[in-house]
Write a structure and sequence with these properties.
With about 375 residues, the protein is an alpha/beta fold. The chain folds into three domains: about 15-100, Winged helix-like DNA-binding domain superfamily/Winged helix DNA-binding domain (Arc Repressor Mutant, subunit A); about 105-220 and about 370-380, ATPase, nucleotide binding domain (Nucleotidyltransferase, domain 5); about 225-360, Nucleotidyltransferase, domain 5 (2-Layer Sandwich). The chain contains 13 helices and 16 strands. It has helices at about 15-25, 35-50, 55-65, 65-80, 145-160, 195-200, 210-225, 280-285, 285-295, 300-320, 335-350, 350-355, 370-380; strands at about 55, 85-90, 100, 110-115, 120-125, 130-140, 165-175, 175, 185, 190-195, 205-210, 230-235, 240-245, 250, 325-330, 360. A five-stranded mixed sheet has the order 6-5-4-7-11, with helices on both faces. Strands 14-13-12-15-16 form a five-stranded mixed sheet, sandwiched between helices. Helix 7 packs across helix 13 (about 370-380). The radius of gyration is 22 Å and the shape is globular.
């Protein structure tokens, strides 16, 4: 049922905001004719997600379709319970317009993060990105089949706790994950070649799996406050990984290993790494190392870690012409000392055309791994990103 309420006239979007939204929508790939209706649904939902409530006429203009097409697609979305009518504007000029918005409670998403070393985190998330319920589960050093069974029980518990239809299940895992949801390798969990999406498949909802750094990048792209569509997100926890976003698209690489910079050697005669090499980036920068340095007020260690990260990033940023670096992980990566060290190291190794534009900033999304798992489902199921 459509919800009709009379609301005061809505303030028009600023030209800048409308231009940013139009640019974001223009980045969405256009589908073949047989998939056009699904594509239009995704574009309308994306416009509502990033631009807020809008009239049918405005949505038609934004996505470049006729008013009749927009109305038909909106009816489909309403029948599915994904959008709702929010009321009519009461402006003094012209006929009042009925505003359409995403129905936050239309579906819930089961989101699971496997990133933390000591615990797994699960949540129910609505369509607006609000965490309805968040639960933590001690990992107790489980690996292999034991870790898989814990994830299975988390999925079952959260599905049972949902009070709305489930849109899908999203899982953010460490390691390399292919597009089909197979964990090619996650050493800390003892998984290799594990078809996680298949193992956790549900009859009523699809399961989607992504690398945790990529999930964080999706969270920033979908729920971030900057509206950025070109950035490199650095995820620091037990190791280091990147999520690469260009023109609103997440880049995963030919073998799903894009962004795996943790084992790039930054000091050939450095400490031995778990991979067998010496001086890998992960031996110089990790969550535990930064936390220990911060507790001891050891700015030199923090500064050196940031410098190593900046050195590893410089060639990547130059090759991609990306000047927006987002830091995700423990609070220590958001300190001025660490961020300044990253920025200075990049600036020392790049041309002014890039370094003068360079921004190094913390993620604007709390609980970004869990919300990244939710963003993965929104992207795969509804085309929202």
């Amino acid at each position: 049922m459509l919800k009709i309420v009379i609301v005061p006239g809505a303030a028009p979007s600023t030209p800048t905001a409308r231009d940013e939204l139009a640019e974001r929508l223009s980045l969405a790939p256009r589908s073949l004719p047989e998939d056009l209706r699904r594509s239009n649904r995704g574009l309308i939902l994306r416009a509502l997600h990033h631009g807020g409530p809008a009239s049918r006429a405005d949505l038609a203009k934004l996505i470049g379709v006729t008013a009749a097409t927009a109305s038909s697609v909106i009816k489909d979305l309403d029948d599915l319970g994904l959008v709702e009518e929010l009321g009519r504007t009461s402006g003094s000029v012209g006929k009042p317009a009925t505003m359409i918005g995403i129905a936050p409670d239309g579906r819930q998403i089961v989101a699971i993060s496997l990133s933390k070393p000591d615990e797994f985190v699960g949540a129910l998330v609505d369509l607006s990105g609000t965490i309805v319920e968040r639960r933590t589960y001690p990992r107790e050093n489980r690996t292999g089949t034991d870790a898989l069974e814990l994830v299975r029980s988390i999925r079952d518990e959260l599905v049972g706790a949902a009070d709305r239809p489930i849109l899908g299940v999203g899982i953010a895992s460490p390691g390399i994950v292919d597009p089909e949801g197979t964990v090619i390798r996650a050493s800390r969990l003892g998984w290799q070649g594990l078809p996680l999406a298949h193992e956790l498949g549900l009859g009523e909802a699809d399961v989607h799996v992504a690398n945790d750094a990529n999930a964080s990048a999706l969270a920033e792209l979908t729920f971030g406050t900057s509206n950025a569509t070109n950035f490199v997100l650095v995820r620091v926890d037990q190791g280091v990984g990147l999520g690469l976003v260009l023109k609103g698209e997440l880049l995963t690489g030919a073998a799903s290993a894009a962004g795996e910079i943790g084992h790039v050697v930054v000091q050939p005669d450095g400490d031995e790494c778990t991979c067998g090499k010496r001086g890998c980036l992960e031996t110089k920068i990790s969550g535990p190392l930064l936390q220990q340095a911060q507790k001891g007020a050891d700015d030199d260690v923090v500064r050196l870690a940031g410098a190593h990260l900046g050195a590893a990033l410089a060639s990547i940023l130059s090759a991609l012409d990306v000047a927006d670096v987002v830091l995700s992980g423990p609070s220590e990566v958001a300190t001025d000392t660490f961020r300044d060290a990253v920025r200075d190291a990049v600036a020392d190794r790049t041309l002014p055309e890039l370094s003068e534009r360079l921004v190094v900033r913390p993620s604007s999304v709390d609980d970004d791994i869990v919300l990244g798992a939710a963003a993965l489902v929104l992207d795969r199921e509804l085309g929202i990103r």
